[in-house]
């Protein structure tokens, strides 16, 4: 994205943002898949100053070339439905899921996520995306939240004849109570929303009646999104377990330390706590899943982000619900081959999971 040096669409440190593009061919030449990169958020001056010295806050630290596995792969045997599409990875360097618009002059911090999003879309439209017959906006983690926040905006870029849908992978962050009875994630999101000026960019259908912080949580957004949306999430989302359900700050005596790193070390009561979280997740998507246009794949795994890894997206032993894997389910939903509302039985019934274990 080459733009003027004084252009307002910049990373946290003022460097220019960027994306990686792999051109489509053949039957996919006019189809576009946009993948929004994830990577957490920064909710304070201190955490944003730290972030601007990493690839998640500055293009100076970004790799010039990256691998495209999973949903971005260009091999039919790894990515049967999207391999020959134009595939784009939009790099994440703002810290508010591409939705902030503010700055902190004293610390030379630029909160320009919304402008980065708009500049990238404008640039891609000029590179042929305006002629798209099919488009899919996807993202994982903080990028999965961004794909929900920007879903209807993305739809609005194209004529109604273009088939446009959105996919959120590991982006269903819940406003839930942590193991100490507090709301760690709500406090973090409050910091992100107020520090980075997110309020004015939140979907109006939510912001006109709820506190802006709550409108950063997908559970208050998904029912009002008009564009078809697919939610792919692990019922025991490892990021949420580590950062919002049982973070060290909520566990001063370390009772959750072993469980947080490896589900096999959880006690029965800890697993029951996670079952309560799963129930909240299923409750949050109840209304959403009634709509025919939407898709759902909630598997009972200790995982986070399953579209960007080859082993979880499409491989011989990738996760399944019933007899369908992740890639097949997403493809069936996108191309209207089947109605996909897949919800796993609770842990420990699923033997196909790729559970994450941390050292």
Automatic annotation (TrEMBL):
Its EC number is 3.1.1.-. It is found in: Secreted, Cell wall. GO terms for biological process: cell wall organization. Its main location: secreted. The keyword Protein transport does not apply. GO terms for molecular function: pectin acetylesterase activity. Keywords: Cell wall, Cell wall biogenesis/degradation, Hydrolase, Secreted. Belongs to the pectinacetylesterase family. Hydrolyzes acetyl esters in homogalacturonan regions of pectin. In type I primary cell wall, galacturonic acid residues of pectin can be acetylated at the O-2 and O-3 positions. Decreasing the degree of acetylation of pectin gels in vitro alters their physical properties. GO terms for cellular component: plant-type cell wall. The keyword Secreted applies. InterPro entries: PAE/NOTUM. It comes from the Eukaryota. This is Pectin acetylesterase.
